[in-house]
Amino acid sequence: MSPIGGLVMSTRSGDLDPGVILFFLRKYEMTPAQLDGLFSNSSGLKAIAGTGNMKELINRRFSDPQAQEAIDVFCYQAKRQIAALAAGLGGLDILIFTGGIGENAPLIREQICRDMVFMGIKLDPALHQTSEDIISTLDSTVSVQVIKTNEAWMIAKHIDHIINTNLKN
User: Fold this and answer.
1) For the segment 76-85, what is each residue's pLDDT rounded down to a tens digit?
2) Which residues of 34-59 are buried (b: 16+ CB within 10 A; e: fewer)?
């Protein structure tokens, strides 16, 4: 329905118990616009640690317990989402990390994949530091990869599809 749901993000809450919304409505008499602002712009990692910048959180994690807590929440939720999707799919063949965090934060990839051997996910300790291509071990039954995001290519692909579909109609 909106980008608020799913994984906790920089300033977005991610999935919430619907009771949270009711609590804010009752206790603080918030309007829908105020709730949207809260859950879209003032929640997530920013609410936990004062910033939604993962690079900054990683740099502060030893000196700031809230920074480590934000990292832990993010990784836990990512791991939970992976497990839920794998259950729905009947397992995984491949796990891809992409985007800013997925491409550039080996610490986050490692923490997400930690203790996932039961699902066939095993990172190669050296490869996952390089942020390139396959980062799983040879005996991992799930191929774990880092793929660079190419948003311009995806936009062009979608536009090409729309144009070609409209020309046929």
Assistant:
1) 999 999 999 9
2) ebeebbbeebbbbbbbebbebebbbe
**β-bridge partners, 146:** 97, 133
State the sign of the Cα–Cα–Cα–Cα dihedral 91, 96, 102, 108. Answer: positive
- What are the extents of the domains in the chain? 1-73, 92-169
Q: Which of 95, 90, 49 shows the shortest CA–CA distance to 71?
A: 49
pLDDT for 131: 63
Q: How confident is the model at residue 154 (pLDDT cuts 50, 70, 90)?
A: confident
Q: Which fold has domain 1-73?
A: Nucleotidyltransferase; domain 5 (3.30.420)
The angle formed by the CA atoms of residues 45, 50 and 56, to the nearest 5 degrees, is: 75
Look at the domain 92-169 and name its fold. Answer: Nucleotidyltransferase; domain 5 (3.30.420)
User: Do 92-169 and 1-73 have the same topology in CATH?
Assistant: yes
pTM of the model: 0.85
